[in-house]
Amino acid sequence: MNNFEFKNPTKIIFGKDTIKNIANEIPTNAKVLLLYGGGSIKKNGIYDQVTTALANVDFIEFGGIPANPEYALLMDALKVIKDEKITYLLAVGGGSVIDGTKFLSAAALYEGETPWDILTKNIRTEKGMPFGTVLTLPATGSEMNSGAVITRKETKEKLAMGGPGLFPVFSILDPQVISSIPQRQLANGLMDAFTHVLEQYMTYPVEALLQDRFAESILQTIIEVAPKILKDPTDYKAASNFMWSCTMALNGLIQKGVPTDWAVHAMGHELTALFGIDHARTLAIIAPSHYEFNFDAKKEKLAQYGERVWNITEGTLEEKSKAAIKKTVAFFHEIGIDTKLSDYTKDYEGTAEKIAKRFTDRGWLGLGEHQSLSPDKVEEIVKMAY
Ligand code: NZQ
Ligand code: ZN
């Protein structure tokens, strides 16, 4: 096992009817900006629950943050924060609203020339404006981690940021919010969380027995709840296990002491930036080709995953690993997610070269757990995903 440090300061308030607890978590003298997305919270009653809970809190609101939070719109929110002397942010939404809020938390206290530099110059945020979240869509883990991904339409870029100052102070996880989530977003949530685990697990063995079993148990739980939650999002048993699995998949715990990959996400983000494909679906496009391409480097873990998660007991190590990739693709299909770029766009020619060039220009010359995935290899993987 590798050396590590672990600190996660986010307070989780989990369970039925917990949204009413918001006010206990926000300082009484705070001036709050309530941030939300395109309006789902107004239809499903979450907005009412939140504003009722904020009855004695001084707050104003900013809605309209789109899926893949957009830089230009967030700059409008930043102006509101400055003009209204906001001291505390409250995100009510999925990964996009929470990530947008993290960007604002960083940008509000940023003293450099333009907040865009936070994204392009990899500036870590040591201290941000404090914020809490009410999670409405289990998927990203953003409610309990310190990372964010921001999109800029103007330049078709999608870039990550983060730092120890960007953990939410608290996050409220009421699994009942899942009942209004459309099928497409439920599938996205399952897919995203599943891939988060794979990115931190499908590398090479380092005798980290507990981390491996944490990861495998999250994968098994997602596989078990997937058909139930897709069939009936009001099934509280399935919803609560789905929600907690997504949070645990990316709150930092399972990646401690082990190598991590994250190349699937790096390539996937480009597909969202170029084609607007949902984040989770970009992962389903890239992951199978990535595991085929890097088969030799990953085959020990692929076989272990095949045995422990998919009960593949027959065959050589190579055969088990191959079967594990097949099972994974079949699972993506079962939850209704296509796995080829051509399923999403007819305009895919030249994409691989474009992505490889972008990575070269950014100096991303070696991705993956061995830092060996050079832009020419990225190009091959994306081509395999056509
Ligand atoms: O905008 P509204 O109207 O609220 O509708 C949203 C949105 O259209 C809807 N929705 C959310 N909760 C709902 C609901 N509809 C009905 N009932 C509810 N309870 O769902 C749609 C998608 O929401 P979004 O927040 O975009 O989804 P998700 O949580 O999947 O977030 C995706 C974003 O997170 C980033 C992605 O790149 C993408 O930009 N990620 C963030 C990560 C992180 N911070 O750690 C890691 C991830 O790998 C990912 O990159
Ligand atoms: Zn993701």
TrEMBL record:
Keywords carried by this UniProt record: Oxidoreductase
InterPro entries listed in its UniProt record: ADH_Fe/GldA (IPR001670), ADH_Fe_C (IPR056798), ADH_Fe_CS (IPR018211), BDH-like (IPR044731)
Protein name per UniProt: Aldehyde reductase
Fe-containing alcohol dehydrogenase-like C-terminal domain ranges (all copies): 187-386
Signal peptide residue numbers: none
Molecular function per GO: alcohol dehydrogenase (NADP+) activity; butanol dehydrogenase (NAD+) activity; metal ion binding; methylglyoxal reductase (NADPH) (acetol producing) activity
Organism: Polaribacter vadi
Family: Belongs to the iron-containing alcohol dehydrogenase family.
Entry annotated with the keyword Oxidoreductase: yes
Gene3D superfamilies, per the entry: 3.40.50.1970, Dehydroquinate synthase-like - alpha domain
Pfam families named in the record: ADH_Fe_C (PF25137), Fe-ADH (PF00465)
Cellular component, GO, one term: cytosol
PROSITE patterns named in the record: ADH_IRON_1, ADH_IRON_2
Domain Alcohol dehydrogenase iron-type/glycerol dehydrogenase GldA, residue spans: 9-175
